[in-house]
């Protein structure tokens, strides 16, 4: 293919024309949809060149009419190609009317306006609006929108768009219309339209200033009983944003629509959020505890965007983390306040290390504010979202809670209604606190994960303890040299009894508590603590105060000590993970033999102590005792040696089985002691109890005895909630027995009419570690309930196999790689955005042992040499092959 154009941040220029008002008319038909736009346009007089033509973005559009100030424009006055409509010699200000024809029913990319499952729906972020009508489809062109929708009344009784409903009525032939108006200026990516046969639940929220806001959640008829949790989550988010940031909702109505066919999790369109139904629909029988938590989190995230993303938006797409990193931080804080702060922090960091750290170490490594891209859709990444949130968290930690709130207040005061940059955000934080964050800005412009090594020394004579930090950041594509970063490192010191020591740095008059924030600015920096009465064990990077890799050279004895005693629950968990991972990695590398009883004893004793603790939170225990996954072990091993998935699988299975065998009686007691008591509840205590119970069941399942199979079958058959039902099915899915097949079939028969539950059914089978499971997965591709056009189904079956079942996916036969290549090429023609995300599974092919490297490289070459490969997939694969 012809090499696609690369867009660069350095080439950004302000728009040549502004759009003050946008009036849209949609005539929705079964075969064609007519879209008429009327734009009030004026030249950007800040630009010196007054001869610049009007260039509008457009893709897959059939142009019918163009008018300027109500007069038809002759064809020699404009030029049209596959990407743009260019109009020459336009007035300084004018009205432009454009009528286009589109076919939403054939739009399988699920971008722009598309029709799926009988519902018309839009997804315009990042560049989908250009598939609806000709427009300057960029976030810095903000306009006030009105939208009139006309459609068949019986098929599409609900007609929705952004803002407030202004008017509605009937036309001829049983068609009706609705007119919506959004009083706030917004970029085109925030436009939304929905038309379908939907029902809704309604509630109301009274803001702090006394305004009443109507809340509605629209779903298909059969899902009306699954909306209650989403509604309560929305109301909690609205109150939290008022209490914590002083931010109120600004329209008369807030709407959520749940659809089954959606590329993303959800979209924050102003006043009309469109959600993947996975993040709305829930009741105990069909949704797990994790589903309930994720719904609350995503509902909150999209609501918080109303201010961080909508009221203040982006100058260009390179600034994506300005809204996404900030809003992820806000939803993380909300979830922490609603549940357990330590458990939430552990969950977020585990995800960051499992997905974002490898991204930083791979061919798609990019700064949080990227410098270039081919397809913007490829940069909705963990780096932009989760690392972006960590940058916000560091600012919060450096400035403190009150200082951060002052910065947020100033940010909104300065920039409400504007399209801005990450620099504008950091400047507001600086000015509100008289702080200097110039060096901190490097977090936005430098790619890669910084590494911090620590050398420690205790002076018995002077009773001082020194810590020397050295930071470095490995080279990344296009960026070999890195500058020293401003890195906040929270530390504590523990005495031999496991108690926190008071901390006093040299030069300070008195101790400053038991946790202190050390700010690293230089490549090497030493901090000295005074009045340290005995050699301490340091607790470094408490709360994961910065997204870095820590090389602290802890001994296994120190790690076990911190696991048992650290008052910082995150670092306590982290110490346990390092302890367990270190042992397994040494086994993989042959430094420890599997039969070494001392090694098993070193793992089992602290494991048992944690398992039986009556003081620790049960959810925290579950996280501590969840061993590093095969993928996590592979990431750690790849830092020093090639990855051998077969060997990693054998070692982890050996350790897990050994723990299960040694602690069988303890696991059985934990399992019995944490059985459901009374009605199902999703409070933190109930969720914690179920998580510990099902953790015990998963370990017992490793024994694969008739007795354990019976326990799992009993839970599966009698479960009154999806959490317990799917946990039992998960245990059985890994055991070769007749009960496994029966449970899988029974689950399908029970839930075959619920598409979201069937996603769990597909995912459970894709993650099964039964040898040769790939043949079953290929068979499931032809199952009547699977559709390659539905992103949820693809993620459930294909992504679960390739991403969550590394032992099977990386089988030395290469069958897993061929399977994935076939799916990527199939999706490339249907939905390039999803195909590109699938292609990312091959990004780290160079980190595997030589035989697997060769197999994966061959698949990448096959993909890139395929005719008509999309720009989305090309960008991912071409970078992987460099």
Automatic annotation (TrEMBL):
Enzyme category, top tier = hydrolase
- Please report the stretch or stretches of sequence annotated as the Aminopeptidase N-like N-terminal domain: 24-190
The EC number(s) attached to this protein equal: 3.4.11.2
Q: Which InterPro entries match?
A: Aminopeptidase_N-like_N, Aminopeptidase_N-like_N_sf, PepN_Ig-like_sf, Peptidase_M1, Peptidase_M1_dom, Peptidase_M1_pepN, Peptidase_M1_pepN_C, Peptidase_M1_pepN_C_sf
Q: Which UniProt keywords apply?
A: Aminopeptidase, Hydrolase, Metal-binding, Metalloprotease, Protease, Zinc
Catalyses: Release of an N-terminal amino acid, Xaa-|-Yaa- from a peptide, amide or arylamide. Xaa is preferably Ala, but may be most amino acids including Pro (slow action). When a terminal hydrophobic residue is followed by a prolyl residue, the two may be released as an intact Xaa-Pro dipeptide
- Domain of life, per the record? Bacteria
Pinpoint the Peptidase M1 alanyl aminopeptidase C-terminal domain residues.
558-881
One of its GO biological process terms is:
proteolysis
Q: What positions does the domain Peptidase M1 membrane alanine aminopeptidase occupy?
A: 230-440
List each copy of the Peptidase M1 alanyl aminopeptidase Ig-like fold domain by range: 448-552
| UniProt-listed Gene3D superfamilies | 2.60.40.1840, 3.30.2010.30, Neutral Protease Domain 2, Peptidase M1, alanyl aminopeptidase, C-terminal domain, tricorn interacting facor f3 domain
Cofactor requirement = Zn(2+)
- SUPFAM superfamilies membership: Leukotriene A4 hydrolase N-terminal domain (SSF63737), Metalloproteases ('zincins'), catalytic domain (SSF55486)
From the Swiss-Prot or TrEMBL record, what is one GO molecular function term? Answer: alanyl aminopeptidase activity
One Pfam family, short name please? Peptidase_M1
Q: Which family does it belong to?
A: Belongs to the peptidase M1 family.
Database matches in PANTHER family: PUROMYCIN-SENSITIVE AMINOPEPTIDASE
What this protein is reported to do is described as:
Aminopeptidase N is involved in the degradation of intracellular peptides generated by protein breakdown during normal growth as well as in response to nutrient starvation.
Q: What is this protein called?
A: Aminopeptidase N
Name its species: Desulfonema limicola
What does the record give as the organism's lineage?
Answer: Bacteria, Pseudomonadati, Thermodesulfobacteriota, Desulfobacteria, Desulfobacterales
Gene responsible for this protein? pepN
């Amino acid at each position: 293919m012809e090499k696609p154009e690369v867009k660069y941040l350095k080439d950004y220029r302000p728009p040549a024309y502004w759009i003050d008002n946008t009036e849209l008319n949609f005539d929705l038909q079964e075969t064609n949809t007519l879209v008429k736009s009327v734009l009030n346009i004026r030249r950007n007089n800040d630009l010196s060149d007054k001869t610049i033509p009007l260039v509008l973005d457009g893709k897959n559009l059939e142009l019918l009419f163009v008018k300027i100030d109500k007069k038809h424009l002759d064809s020699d006055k404009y030029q049209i190609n596959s990407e743009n409509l260019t109009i020459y010699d336009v007035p300084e200000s004018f009205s432009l009317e454009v009528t286009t024809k589109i076919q939403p029913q054939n739009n399988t990319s699920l971008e722009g306006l598309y029709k799926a499952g009988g519902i018309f729906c839009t997804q315009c972020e990042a560049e989908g609006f250009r598939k609806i009508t000709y427009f300057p489809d960029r976030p810095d062109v903000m306009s006030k929108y009105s939208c009139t929708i006309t459609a068949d009344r019986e098929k599409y009784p609900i007609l929705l768009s952004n803002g407030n409903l202004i008017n509605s009525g009937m036309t001829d032939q049983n068609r009706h219309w609705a007119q919506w108006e959004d009083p706030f200026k917004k970029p085109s990516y925030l436009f939304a339209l929905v038309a379908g046969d939907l029902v809704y639940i309604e509630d109301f929220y009274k803001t702090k200033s006394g305004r009443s806001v109507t809340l509605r959640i629209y779903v298909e008829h059969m899902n009306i009983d699954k909306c209650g949790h989403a509604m309560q989550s929305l109301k909690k988010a609205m109150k939290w944003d008022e209490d914590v940031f002083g931010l109120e909702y600004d329209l008369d109505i807030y709407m959520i629509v749940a659809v089954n066919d959606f590329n993303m999790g959800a979209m924050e369109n102003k006043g009309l959020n469109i959600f993947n139904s996975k993040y709305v629909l829930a009741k105990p029988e069909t949704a797990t505890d994790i589903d309930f938590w994720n719904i609350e989190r995503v509902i909150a995230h999209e609501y918080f965007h109303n201010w961080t993303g909508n009221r203040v938006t982006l100058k260009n797409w390179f600034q994506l983390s300005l809204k996404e990193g900030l809003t992820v931080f806000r939803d993380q804080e909300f979830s922490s306040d609603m549940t357990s702060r330590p458990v939430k922090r552990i969950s977020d960091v585990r995800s960051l290390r499992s997905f974002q750290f490898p991204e930083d170490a791979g061919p798609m490594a990019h700064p949080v504010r990227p410098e270039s891209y081919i397809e913007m859709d490829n940069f909705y990444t963990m780096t932009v979202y989760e690392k972006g949130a960590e940058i916000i968290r560091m600012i919060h930690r450096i400035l403190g809670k009150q200082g951060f709130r002052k910065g947020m207040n100033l940010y909104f005061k300065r920039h409400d209604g504007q399209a801005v940059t990450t620099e504008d955000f950091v400047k507001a934080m600086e000015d509100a606190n008289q702080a200097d964050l110039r060096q901190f800005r490097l977090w936005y412009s430098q790619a890669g994960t910084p590494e911090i090594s620590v050398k420690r020394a205790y002076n018995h004579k002077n009773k001082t303890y020194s810590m020397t930090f050295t930071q470095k950041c490995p080279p990344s594509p296009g960026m070999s040299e890195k500058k020293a970063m401003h890195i906040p490192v929270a530390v504590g010191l523990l005495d031999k009894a496991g108690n926190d020591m008071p901390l006093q740095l040299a030069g300070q008059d008195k101790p400053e508590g038991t946790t202190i924030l050390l700010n690293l600015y230089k490549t090497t920096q030493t901090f000295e603590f005074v009045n340290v009465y005995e050699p301490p064990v340091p607790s470094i990077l408490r709360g994961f105060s910065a997204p870095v890799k820590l090389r602290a050279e802890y001994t296994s004895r120190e790690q076990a000590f911190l696991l048992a005693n650290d008052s910082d629950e995150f670092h306590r968990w982290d110490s346990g993970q390092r302890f367990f991972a270190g042992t397994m990695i040494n086994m993989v590398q042959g430094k420890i033999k599997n039969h070494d009883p001392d090694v098993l004893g070193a793992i089992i004793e602290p494991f048992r102590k944690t398992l039986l603790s009556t003081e620790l939170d049960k959810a925290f225990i579950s996280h501590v005792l969840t061993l590093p996954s095969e993928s996590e072990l592979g990431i750690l091993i790849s830092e020093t040696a090639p990855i051998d998935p077969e060997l990693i699988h054998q070692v982890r299975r050996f350790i897990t089985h050994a723990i299960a065998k040694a602690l069988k009686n303890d696991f059985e007691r934990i399992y019995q002691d944490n059985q459901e008591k009374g009605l199902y509840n999703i409070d933190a205590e109930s969720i914690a109890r179920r998580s510990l119970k099902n953790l015990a069941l998963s370990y017992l399942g490793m024994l694969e005895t008739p007795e354990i199979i019976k326990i799992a079958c009993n839970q599966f058959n009698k479960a009154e909630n999806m959490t317990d039902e799917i946990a039992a099915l998960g245990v059985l899915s890994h055991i070769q027995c007749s009960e496994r097949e029966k449970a899988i079939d029974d689950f399908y028969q029970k839930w075959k009419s619920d598409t979201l539950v069937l996603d769990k059914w597909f995912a459970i089978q894709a993650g099964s570690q039964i040898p040769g499971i790939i043949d079953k997965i290929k068979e499931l591709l032809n199952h009547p309930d699977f559709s390659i056009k539905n992103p949820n189904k693809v993620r459930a079956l294909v992504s679960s196999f390739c991403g969550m079942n590394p032992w099977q996916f990386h089988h030395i036969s290469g069958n897993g790689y061929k399977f994935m290549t076939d799916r990527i090429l199939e999706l490339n023609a249907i939905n390039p955005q999803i195909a590109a995300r699938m292609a990312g599974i091959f990004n780290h092919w160079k980190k595997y042992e030589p035989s697997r490297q060769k197999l994966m490289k061959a698949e990448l070459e096959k993909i890139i040499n395929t005719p008509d490969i999309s720009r989305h997939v090309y960008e991912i694969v071409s970078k992987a092959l460099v």
